Automatic annotation (TrEMBL), chain A:
Mode of membrane association: Multi-pass membrane protein
Organism taxonomic ancestry: Bacteria, Pseudomonadati, Pseudomonadota, Alphaproteobacteria, Rhodobacterales
Annotated function: Part of the high-affinity ATP-driven potassium transport (or Kdp) system, which catalyzes the hydrolysis of ATP coupled with the electrogenic transport of potassium into the cytoplasm. This subunit is responsible for energy coupling to the transport system and for the release of the potassium ions to the cytoplasm.
Pfam assignment, any one: E1-E2_ATPase
Reaction catalysis annotation: K(+)(out) + ATP + H2O = K(+)(in) + ADP + phosphate + H(+)
One cellular component (GO) term of this entry: plasma membrane
Protein family membership: Belongs to the cation transport ATPase (P-type) (TC 3.A.3) family. Type IA subfamily.
Originating organism: Cypionkella aquatica
Principal localisation: membrane
Record's protein name: Potassium-transporting ATPase ATP-binding subunit
Residues annotated as transmembrane: 36-53, 65-87, 221-245, 251-276, 618-638, 658-678
A GO molecular-function annotation: ATP hydrolysis activity
UniProtKB/TrEMBL annotation, chain B:
Protein name per Swiss-Prot or TrEMBL: Potassium-transporting ATPase potassium-binding subunit
NCBIfam families per the UniProt record, alphabetical: kdpA (TIGR00680)
Lineage: Bacteria, Pseudomonadati, Pseudomonadota, Alphaproteobacteria, Rhodobacterales
Protein family membership: Belongs to the KdpA family.
Native organism: Cypionkella aquatica
HAMAP family named in the record: KdpA
GO cellular component entries: plasma membrane
Length: 684, 569
């Protein structure tokens, strides 16, 4: 990975200060209404404040007690808004630094678009705005979709069309549109950017972490519904308690009922819910991945199948030529000379490795074309062959079946020696490239794939999580199977065309599975759009980036695995804190109920199993615990619960033990300690 | 507690256990339209009904039309039952010449039998004619139970199907539940009861001279047939006021065991049916285990509390060896009374063979809590299953996130819509129970119906509304409930407890049925193992229990500590 995902210090001073101010601003009830649990807390905090003032002015009741309850209720609300503000602050800081520093596509922004001086400065494509004019010269990648305002250029649009033949684009007329991600092969053009600004994705991402425009993700929404429902249930339980207590001859004070209500409603998770969601986004940004919707992050946790391109993900991109296998009647040197010719303009690492091998092992030197003009045949995803036409000589190298097809053969009718060589190479984990000249097979090039270290362990971890890995490769079945077994993937898609990918995704989805994939070309766009999580490479075309729901700024296909883990961690954090929050209620009942009725039924002190000092200190301790636990859990909400790849049953057992049982027991201890402090300080 | 007592409990539960698999699989066969061994006899009758009613049995209903059919059917049932009760003086089979019921009592009773509650604000033998008992009440004992089963099957199909619009056909499910499940079982149980000495006659009763020489009219009637469906359909509405404590309803220890078996068997077999229909019988067993765990714990507490007895009585010289025997029948004994108490309240049956109001405070807390936990242990026929599914959905939602996936139950994603509907459903019980109890607790007109002061009086109120809203129907004796206030509010509580619960549940089923069924992997939250069972138990206790904890603390809990402190009211 090109960068190490470092988080800012958990409590960065600047972020904390801004967050403290934002926390107060967020008390605006109109904003808080989005969070029903905390909204209810704010309403009753205001109510208790009024009651406290009344007691203070009229000199009745227990203003010291009511005042403290009111203060801690306000703290509860403030801690919740603070949690959200901190998460937002961290997310925004992260996104801002991203916007400044990171982009793989550099653009030449013209300083005087209308002049002819062509003065430009290098800027990141992400910083381009609508209407900016950029200069694109030979070899440059067009940063964004746009319109040519001056110049003519030959452009390689293979990335979007799969056609390797360059097309001519020029200013004016209907051939003036150019697509981001395509390459200018000759000349230069001035392009006015017509696509949405380059920073769209980052802008969208910032909107996802910012309070005002932040949309709740589907699961967050569902959880909010549950929390609101529970708030309503406990509202019923406390309001009706007034009547039941009245029957029993106890006049329960509103302050105490409010205290009971606030400790029972799920304020902990209610207060931390949005912070958890924002922090999940933030973790993604730290990995240089930009999600265009919160839904995608959740879906990442649900992914059942990962579609991984072999090259770059499972193996190093560079397959190296290791051997030339000539067919009978052809010398190895002839074969080497032929492939050297065919690879002359092949700039891929494979092509370069073939040239290197031909020169080093067979002592050949660069050929001299003389008067002849070679026609270079580039590799395309459809033909899966490249080569050269030199006068009457047509040399082709490429995927075995393509070369066979070119030679008018099928695998069955190919010479036995050819079949044997292909088989042997494929079974050894290598990639055979067929070589043919003028329709006749010459031999096979043995390309060796190097599998990335540690990738096998990662797949094993994914398998333990229940995620199936599928390797996608253009290789033939035998080759694919060998590499698949060596790398430890569960399945592979050999000789895959973009259509195969799309069909595979559809098939998996029909079986009820969620698919994640990454891709860069426009021909990947349909599959990216179809996949539940589509990660587009920043180096990819605009179309691909629009089709996916995440963009990886590092363009590292391995990122998919981290993305899935981030999604899972987000959901786990949410679930764990919800469970913790609900389990807390048991202890709070045991603190408050005996205190509530002790005047009428002194015998109920049998329920005071924590032996809290006095009824008032018991109630106050529960309220204080309830407020402090929010602050105490902010770091956990921001960092996420610790996550180890394992099966669902093991994860559940572990989290249920920590957050379920822990949530049941911990408040007993916490409330007791607070009660001891309160009594020591004579606060109640 | 004695070993022989526990053995008796074990025997009854073992008999239930032995019946679950055959009955569960049989019902799965029935509701998926498969052939059963009763087909040669019943199939022509079934198709005859469809032809008669103009129902196309192949037509699938979405949740909406399913719910509308159920509501229309219930409305028609309510109207006809209300009319029968009001007009019974003019109807046949009224040998005792009973008058029609007053409007509030007729309303209460009609709702009560319609909702499978069978709350009885009247004494059966002194109020109801044979016609009302047979054509009114007994008919609804079948229909209300069949409605419950039908809804449970609709909910089951929501999980069994993938991307489906339909939940089945209400009319078909109703007909099959009655014809293939309830009727054959009722015939067998009724015959067994008659063999065990339960009367079955159309005579009015006869006059007898007691040992003291007094004249007494002994009521008789078609008791065995009513008794069978009363238990099998978890209805609980007895022929007699004394219900299953009456020697004509429940003459012996053996008939008592049969009664417990009969009320448990259908509700306990339905999870197996559920498991089978969703393609994993193991899932059914997991749900059943959670039910069984809480139910048996309840039995244990009642048994322990009752045999521990009341220290105040012991202080007065009552032999403490037998425990608290007030309100219990000698022929059943402590263990079979404890089992009956827990089962009838865990089940929303509401038949009683002991007076719940006479239980010790903790012994009385158990039936109250079992009702308040939502009548899912194992709950009424059908209603227990769909209630449990709601809890399972909530449990999976809360804890399912902890495995790092958005929650799913049986491959169905649980999203905002499902949660909204599940929450709407679980809101009903606390709203109705606590709301009405709190209002009644401050209303002098209501308080005058209480027989006891102090916490026990509060328990009476709380129990009445819990029983009504939970569609249980048993009572904490002591409350004179046949007043306009109670007849009306309890009637409303019963109606809300059934219909306001079922509508969101059916809507949830509709939404779930339409979703594709996701494939399971090792990353999926396993819902058929011990962990899930524990979780389900925890969610039921926390979600159900916490709502009612304050109310219970002021009722039975404080009564218990006061008893230990020697205070009475």
């Amino acid at each position: 990975m090109s960068n190490s995902p470092t988080a800012p210090a958990l409590f960065d001073r600047a972020i904390i200060l801004t967050a403290a101010r934002d926390a107060v601003l967020k008390l605006d009830p109109r904003k808080l209404a989005r969070n029903p649990v905390i909204f209810v807390t704010e309403v009753v905090a205001a109510l208790v404040t009024v009651l406290w003032l009344r007691e203070l002015i009229l000199g009745i009741g227990t203003p010291l007690f009511s005042g403290q309850i009111a203060a801690w209720l306000w703290f509860t609300v403030l801690f919740a808004t603070f949690a959200e503000a901190v998460a937002e602050g961290r997310g925004k800081a992260q996104a801002a630094s991203l916007r400044q520093s990171r982009s793989d596509v550099q653009a030449k922004l013209l300083l005087h678009p209308d002049a002819n001086d062509n003065l430009y400065e290098h800027v990141s494509a992400l910083q381009l705005g609508l209407g900016d004019v950029v200069l694109v010269e030979t070899g440059d990648v067009i940063p964004l979709d746009g319109e040519i305002i001056a110049g003519v250029a030959a452009i390689n649009e293979a990335a979007i069309t799969g056609e390797s033949a360059p097309v001519i684009r020029e200013a004016g007329g209907d051939r003036s549109a150019v697509t981001g991600g395509t390459t200018v092969l000759s000349d230069f053009i001035k392009v006015r950017i017509t696509a949405a600004p380059g920073s769209t994705f980052i802008d969208r991402m910032i909107a996802l972490v910012e309070g005002a425009e932040r949309q709740k993700t589907p699961n967050e929404l569902a959880l909010s519904v549950l929390l609101s429902g529970m708030t309503l249930i406990f509202l019923i339980a406390t309001v009706t308690l007034w009547g039941l207590a009245g029957y029993s001859g106890t006049a329960v004070s509103v302050v105490v009922l409010v205290a009971l209500l606030v400790t029972l409603i799920p304020t902990t998770i209610g207060g931390l819910l949005s912070a958890i969601g924002i922090a999940g986004m933030d973790r993604l940004i730290r990995f240089n991945v930009i999600a265009t919707s919160g839904r995608a992050v959740e879906a990442a946790g649900d992914v059942d199948t990962l579609l991984l391109d072999k090259t770059g993900t499972i193996t190093f991109g560079n397959r190296m030529a290791a051997d030339f296998v000539a067919l009978p009647g052809i010398t190895e040197t002839d074969l080497a000379a032929a492939v050297l010719l065919a690879s002359q303009s092949d700039d891929t690492p494979e092509g370069r490795s073939i040239v290197a091998l031909a020169k080093s092992e067979h002592g050949l030197s660069d050929p001299d074309f003389g008067a002849q003009t070679p026609v270079i045949i580039s590799f395309t995803a459809q033909t899966r062959m490249s080569g050269i036409d030199l006068g009457a000589r047509q040399i082709r190298k490429g995927a075995v079946d393509s070369v066979l097809h070119y030679a008018g053969l099928t695998m069955d009718r190919a010479p036995a020696e050819f079949r044997a060589a292909v088989d042997r190479i494929a079974r050894s984990g290598g990639t055979p490239l067929g070589v043919a000249e003028n329709g006749a097979l010459l031999g096979v090039i043995h390309l060796k794939d190097v599998i990335k270290p540690n990738i096998k362990e990662r797949f094993a971890a994914l398998r333990a999580m229940g995620i199936k890995t599928v390797m996608v490769t253009g290789d033939n079945k035998v080759t694919a199977a060998t590499i698949a077994s060596e790398a430890g993937v569960d399945d592979f898609l050999a000789e895959a065309t973009p259509e195969d990918k799309l069909a595979y995704i559809r098939r998996e989805q029909q079986g009820g599975r969620l698919i994640a994939m990454c891709g860069d070309g426009t021909n990947d766009a349909p599959a990216l759009a179809q996949a539940d999580v589509g990660v587009a490479m920043q180096t990819g075309t605009q179309a691909a980036r629009e089709a996916g729901n995440m963009v990886d700024l590092d363009s590292s296909p391995t990122k998919l695995i981290e993305i899935v883990e981030i999604g899972k961690q987000l959901l786990m954090t949410r679930g764990s804190l919800t469970t913790f929050s609900i389990a807390n209620d048991v202890a709070k009942y045991f603190a408050i109920l005996p205190a509530l009725f002790i005047a009428t039924y002194p015998e109920l002190s049998a329920l005071n199993i924590m032996h809290l000092g006095s009824p008032q200190s018991a109630i106050l301790s529960a309220v204080i615990f309830n407020a402090l636990i929010i602050v105490a859990l902010i770091p956990l909400a921001l960092k996420g619960v610790s996550y180890k790849a394992s099966g669902a049953a093991a994860l559940l057992r572990r989290n249920l033990l920590i957050y379920g049982l822990g949530g049941l027991l911990m408040p007993f201890v916490g409330i007791k300690i607070i009660d001891l402090l309160i009594n020591a300080l004579h606060l109640a | 507690m004695t070993l022989i007592g526990w053995l008796q409990i074990a025997v009854v539960l073992a008999l239930v256990l032995a019946s679950l698999v055959p009955l569960g699989r049989y019902m799965a066969q029935v509701f998926t339209g498969g052939r059963t061994w009763l087909h040669p006899v019943l199939r022509p009758v079934e198709t005859g009904f469809y032809r008669l009613a103009g129902v196309d049995p192949a037509r699938e209903q979405g949740w909406h039309s399913y719910a509308v059919a159920m509501l229309m059917f219930s409305a028609a049932g309510f109207a006809s039952l209300y009319a029968i009760l009001r007009l019974q003086a003019y109807l046949p089979l009224n040998p005792q010449g009973f008058a029609g019921l007053p409007p509030d009592l007729a309303f209460n009773t009609a709702i009560s039998f319609l909702t499978n509650t069978n709350w009885q604000a009247y004494g059966g033998e002194t109020t109801m004619s044979h016609f009302s008992q047979m054509a009114g009440l007994a008919v609804h004992n079948f229909l209300s139970a069949a409605t419950g089963i039908a809804i449970a099957m609709a909910v089951t199909r929501a999980f069994a199907r993938s991307g489906a619009q339909g939940l089945g056909n209400f009319w078909v499910d109703m007909t099959r539940a009655t014809l293939y499940v309830l009727l054959p079982l009722s015939v067998v149980v009724a015959l067994l009861l008659i063999w065990l000495g339960v009367p079955q006659t159309l005579a009015a009763g006869f006059d007898a001279t007691t040992l003291e020489g007094a004249q007494q009219t002994i009521s008789m009637g078609p008791i065995a047939s009513q008794e069978a469906i009363k238990q099998l359909g978890t209805n609980g509405g007895g022929f007699f006021n004394a219900n299953s404590a009456h020697p004509f309803e429940n003459p012996s220890a053996l008939s008592n065991m049969l009664a417990i078996w009969a009320m448990l068997v259908v509700s306990a077999a339905l999870p197996i049916t559920f498991g089978r229909m969703v393609g994993s019988e193991r899932q059914g067993w997991a749900i059943l285990s959670a039910m069984a765990f809480l139910l048996i714990a309840g039995v244990g507490v009642v048994y322990w509390a009752e045999t521990s007895g009341n220290p105040l009585m012991a202080a007065l010289g009552v032999d403490p060896a037998m425990g608290n025997f007030e309100g219990k029948e000698i022929r059943f004994g402590q263990s079979m009374s404890a089992l009956f108490v827990a089962v009838t309240t865990g089940l929303s049956c509401g038949a009683v063979n002991a007076m719940h109001g006479s239980l010790t405070p903790l012994g009385g807390l158990v039936p109250l809590l079992l009702i308040q936990l939502g009548e899912v242990l194992p709950g009424g026929v059908g209603s227990g299953l769909y209630g449990m599914v709601v809890f399972a959905v909530l449990a999976v939602f809360v804890a399912g996130l902890m495995v790092g996936r958005t929650p799913e139950f049986l491959g169905k994603k649980i999203e905002a819509r499902e949660i909204k509907l599940a929450v709407l459903a679980v809101l009903i019980l606390p709203m109705v129970i606590l709301g009405f109890t709190a209002v009644s607790a401050m209303l002098p007109a209501a308080l005058s119906s209480l027989a006891n002061a102090g916490p026990h009086g509060l328990s009476e109120l709380l129990y009445a509304y819990s029983s009504a809203a939970g569609n249980n129907g048993s009572a904490f004796a002591g409350l004179s409930a046949n007043t306009p206030w109670f007849n009306t509010t309890l009637g409303i509580a019963m109606g809300l407890g059934r219909f306001a619960y079922v509508i969101p549940v059916l809507a949830m089923a509709g939404s779930l049925a339409a979703k594709p069924r996701a494939a399971a992997s090792v990353g999926t939250f396993p819902t058929d193992g011990g962990l899930f069972i524990g979780l389900l138990v925890g969610v039921i206790l926390i979600l159900g229990g916490l709502q009612f904890f304050p109310a219970l603390a002021l009722g039975p809990v404080v009564e218990h500590v006061l008893m230990l402190a020697g205070k009475t009211f």
